[in-house]
Structures are given as C-alpha cells and as structure tokens.
Amino acid sequence: MAKIIAGVGSSHVPAIGAALDNGKTEEPYWKRVFSGFEKSKQWMANTKPDVAIVVYNDHASAFSVEMIPTFALGCAAEFPPADEGWGPRPVPVLKGHPALAAHIAQSVILDEFDLTVVNKMEVDHGLTVPMNLLFGTPKAWPCPVIPLAVNVVMYPPPTGHRCYMLGRAIRKAVESYPEDLKVVIFGTGGLSHQISGPRAGLINSKWDKSFLDNLTKDPKKLTRIPHIDYMREAGAEGIEMVMWLIMRGALDDKVDEVYRFYTVPASNTAVGHIILENRRKAGSKSKRAPAAKSRQAAARKAAHRIASKGR
Fold first, then answer.
1. Which residues does residue 262 pair with via DSSP β-bridges, in sequence order?
2. Please, what is the angle between helix 227-234 and helix 205-217, to 10°?
C-alpha cells in the first residue's frame, strides 16, 4: 500500500523564486537563505519519494475573486507554471498522479470533506518555490506532484483544526491506495509576515519558533489557535501557517524532527522550514528479518533440490 513517510514545511516567498531565476543565490543576502536548504535537498535525494503532495495557496493564478474554493485538489496529468505577470517561471512542468489524486478525492469526499476537483490548473510560486528549495533546479521534477490549493487569501479561510483533520483524512486515503508508493507531503506558506497596511513588514520570531516547536511536539495545541491570533501575532498573511497543519495531520502522532531552519528576513517574510518523519515502529526490523531468513532458506532448499536432480 502507499504510505506517507514524511512531511516538509517550507515558506514559499516569491522573491526566493526570483533570486533563483535571476542567478542571485550566491549573493550574501540570498546565500544565507539557500544555504539553509542544502541539507534538505540531500535528505530529499536520499528519501526518493514516489509522489509529493504539495499543500499551498494560489495567488490569483488558477483562481480569482470570481471563484475561491476552500480546498482544491489537482487531479490533472500535468500542471504548467503560471504566468504571474512577468511570464511563467523557468521551471519544469509538474507531472501529476491522476490515479492517486482521484483516489484521494473519492476517499476524502466520502469522509465528508468537500474538495473541489480540478482537472486543469496552472501552479504559481506558492508551489514551485518549495519544490526548488527541496529538489533543486532539475530539468525534470524527479517525482509526480499532487497539488492541494487552500484558500488563505479571502475571508473566511479554513480553521487550523479543519486543516489538521483534512490531513488525517488524506493519510487514510493514501494508506488505502493499493500501489506501493512512498509519499512526502508538503505544507507551505508563512511564516509570520504582512505585506501591506500599517503593520507591513511585521515579523514575529518568537511566535514562529513556538509554532515550529509545537508542530513537532503538540500539534493539537496549534489546532486551537483562532484566526484572530494568527492575524495579530503573525500578520495578515501569517494565516498561511494553517496549511502546515494539513501536512502535520497527515503524519503519525509521534514524529521525529529531522531538520529545522529559520531565518529573517527574505524580502519581508520570516523563512521557516522543517522536516518531520514518522517514527519507525519498534521491532519492525526484527519482524521483517525472520521472514527474509525463511525466504532465503527456502531458496537454498530449492537450489539444493535442483542440484540433486542434476547429479
């Protein structure tokens, strides 16, 4: 069966994409940001997921004020980069996984989460920037991607609790898919930032670091944070952090924090990043070992029989 093995949280600051696209990654201002993802790229290269589910918010590329789904699941065969006003980013087209996406949609909707199914969608920096930060800049993305767009732009966005429970429903859906797949799920956006108004430029490092702490240790505490607290403590755009709770809900209750990175600022945003892995159950290796030994013994006996017949 398919299995979600890990979760990744990452900011998706558009200026990070611009720095990548314009060759500025070695400039001192940006090198500080990109160096924090070097270990993460190595982790991803070692993990080699078969599919990535990327939770992000659309920035008026696929949707507009005319149509704003709360949760929209991309079920297409591919997802081109969107033109956000200065041409599409020079990144590869993302290949989808329509079979797994359709399975997730069916399972989650029957679990009473009303997803919007999207069979044609362009994706913007909210998705492509985290992909670059974790996979680098390949000529083709190394695994299929299933986008999950969440409305955190127009009021009312979903609550943190609703997002967390959606993550649990996604985990259930993935684990009921028959193909043996390793899946990594991303939660993107944030951390604290406000891009307009009297508090433009707001960053709250204390809030951000507490959020990251509880994401690992006590995610249910985060599910009780109301919208107004995100607005007050993390800025108007800090509400994006609820998307990280979809990622966390899709993991086991107990996780291991593999890596964390935090720096300020990137443009006008606090950059947060975390990698969480489901804990391997004690004794899982010992359970597999006897089975492997018995298969090896059976193979040796079969070989011995064949050899005996040949004498």
1. 272
2. 140
pLDDT in tens, 291-303: 444 444 444 444 3
pLDDT tens, residue by residue, 105-154 = 999 999 999 999 999 999 999 999 999 999 999 999 999 999 999 999 99
- Residue 266 contacts residue 36 (beta carbons within 8 Å): no
- Given a cut of 90, whether residue 202 has pLDDT beyond it is yes
Please pick, among 193, 227, 273, 304, the residue that the annotation labels catalytic.
193
Active-site residue 304, yes or no?
no
Contacts of 202 (CB under 8 A, 6+ apart): 192, 193, 194, 234, 235
**Annotation marks residue 125 as catalytic:** yes
- Out of 59, 125, 161, 227, pick the active-site residue: 125
Is residue 236 within a helix (H) or strand (E), and if so which, with residue range? none
Distance CA 219, CA 215 (A): 5
